[in-house]
Amino acid sequence: MAAALALSGCTTQHGTPGPVGPGPDPGQLRLVSFSSCTDTLRHLKGAAKASVGPYGLGPSMITVALGAPPQVAGPESGVGRATDQTAPAPDHSGTNVHEAGMDEPDVVKTDGRRIVTILNGRLQVVDVAARAVTGTLDLGRSRLSVAAVGMLLAGDRALVIEHEYPLAEPDGQRWGGLPEIGSGPVPVPIPAAGSRLTLVDLAGGQPRLVNTLHFEGRYLDARLVGGTARVVLSSQPKLLFPAVASARDDVDRIRRNQAVIDTSTAADWLPGYRLEGGGSPVTGRVDCSRVNLPAHYAGSGLLTVLTIDLNTPLGTGDPVSVAADGEIVYATASSLYVTNSPQWSWPGAGPAADRTEVYQFDTGQSGPPRFVASSSVPGWLLNQYSMSEYDGHLRLATTSNPPWQEFAPGPGGGTESQVTVLGRRGDRLVTVGTVGGLGRGERIYAVRFIGPVGYVVTFRQVDPLYTVDLRDPAHPRLTGELTMLGYSSYLHPITDSRLLGVGQQATAEGRTQGTQVSLFDVGDPARPARTAQYHAPLGHSDAEFDPHAFLYWPATRTVVIPLQAYGPATPSSRPSGFDTGVLLLTVEDRALVPRGLVRQQLPGQQVPVPIQRSMMIGDTLWTLSAAGLQANDVRTLRQTGWVPLT
């Protein structure tokens, strides 16, 4: 494990970089410890110097500067009043998440009594019984452009998560700079995204700002268990590489870039923060003692995990960092995993490593997480559903060769998919078992692990649905395969023997033909079968790429997905033209029965408003669009309420 290091006396040290290799084998990403912050900085510099190219370390070399405090308005008077919060809440759906009990941020949340939304820079609270907005909070703006990502809800507290971007270039300066650009203003570093976390008190239906934490680093993802949120950020060093028109060649440019790394300080590498609200702002940086270091170079950035207790005002997040880049976050109640697939390299460094690095944090105790293990596996992950922890093992489904090589000359550019099983041994995640040969010439479009069974969809022209037996982690095996036209890009378990897929119908040549919903019988893993299919010609659904847009309500066996179609979305739809709404299907044992399309049709508009999210509260289907919330009786589909959010 990395030892605790004091942040004091950090001085510039010239590291001796080693050769750049194709990447570590599984289990080689060992953790190393250092005796001082000076040694930590030496490690960061040495690894960066070994990897820097003629144009820098990657597409963005600086995290965002912290902005001025946002101007936050007080709560506005709503058109309704909050109802009695002591009455039992009706049955209601939550955000569709990967792991039960691990809530994920989204733009709308409900506890059955109220609906909370974040749209257009405002948080609004809607009383479900009164069908009215009870309070609105302007989330505020600064000199940075802010884009809401989602929120987490725990009791009367909401944590709003937003990206922050610079609005414009500084006067007389321009962002970045490439070689041979000629004369002009002096370049400044390209700012990357920062993150803003805002804690809101919802008590009484009138939202009130508690305080705000700005943090340098791009937001990756977050999870909530009970009242504790884990927020994962990725930051880059603040290094300004020169735009040198007189550089003789790439070797000269690399030498100049290495000189920039040599003169950097700890402040250039450690992400900063600014805490606002409740008094004078508090500023600081991640302490060097909180930085963990894999022995092998794992990227120029820092992954930082913040721990937020929603029941108390925001603090600094008690940050813990690892010297690595990151992309995909997956979490259980006791572990948090972040993965990184190297995607950027300059031609002289050779091809990017065809491996995914995996970092494990222990979150099983209160307080900040502990960085406990790391490794790498062959190939590239699609999304968080490509990972699953079960009985102490981590299963990962990956495709070898980068996704953009899928359509390279030859049979799929040589792509092939596999499932790897990792087990923790001390500070390493080691390969316990693997099964390959899935979808040669294709890439993964969807994955779902359910207990000891994995389901993998690959596609290029046809869609094989594979079943993988993972009961013996050391000997995973392919047990079944179903080939059909089209593909599923999201898989959802309905029962132990039924699996639902949302994706696209396609021709035998692989040309997509519109949204399809498929029902699979997986009772016998050796013989998976599709028992029903619903096709919306020329349609597409957000649920194909965003699981939060998918809703399944077991009480009525109802599937709800947003749908936009340039043909008949349902048998009762218009015969031609554009149509949009949410499609409702009833799941029977071996059939999918269409219920209809619920639209948000505003007065005076010919085209319905696209719907982003759906939720069930009691017997009412609520749908959210940029215009507002609509209530429909789930049995008759009759509209019973409308709440504008403009």
Q: Can you lay out the helices and strands and say which pair or pack?
A:
Elements: E1 31-32, H1 37-51, E2 76-77, E3 108-110, E4 114-119, E5 122-127, E6 132-138, E7 144-154, E8 157-166, E9 174-175, E10 187-188, E11 194-201, E12 208-216, E13 218-225, E14 228-235, H2 250-262, H3 266-269, E15 272-276, E16 282-285, E17 291-294, E18 302-309, E19 320-322, E20 328-331, E21 335-340, E22 355-362, E23 370-378, E24 387-390, E25 393-400, E26 416-425, E27 428-438, E28 443-450, E29 453-459, E30 462-469, E31 477-485, E32 487-495, E33 498-506, E34 512-521, E35 529-537, E36 539-540, E37 551-553, E38 558-565, E39 579-587, E40 592-598, E41 611-617, E42 620-625, E43 628-633, E44 639-644
Parallel strand pairs: 9-10, 17-19
Antiparallel strand pairs: 1-17, 2-6, 3-4, 4-5, 5-6, 7-8, 8-11, 11-12, 12-15, 13-14, 14-18, 15-16, 18-19, 20-21, 21-22, 22-23, 24-25, 25-26, 26-27, 28-29, 29-30, 30-31, 32-33, 33-34, 34-35, 36-38, 37-38, 38-39, 39-40, 41-42, 42-43, 43-44
